[in-house]
Please model this.
Amino acid sequence: MPVSAALDAAQEAGLDLVEVSPNQDIPVCKIIDYGKLKFEEQKKKAAARKKQKSADLKEIKMRPNIDTHDYEVKTKSMTRFFEEGDKVKVTLRFRGREMAHQHLGMELLQKVKEEFSDVAKVELEPKLEGRQMTMVMAPR
Model:
């Protein structure tokens, strides 16, 4: 159908002539309400954006000589974070003379790593930055 005839048919129907696939050998056009088409596309994009889940970075702060109950509470919240699909940054802060016993901090982070090996993978290995040792874990 020639373009002029298609435009006339669209005008008679009170709708718009919209080119659907311009890159073909023969361009394909439809007679539809363009405003309605744009609105539906906008709704689809909004729905897709709504369904997306961004992985937040949650932080758990510990000390090298953490008590067993405190450690259990921290691991319980880490488990909840992994179930929600969030990454967890484990921060170990050394104060005063604790800096002389950095091996205790490394042992604690290794314990955390082993405990969560089935549900999470280590994204950033434990490393010392000043007075803090950090490790980032992401859910599997």
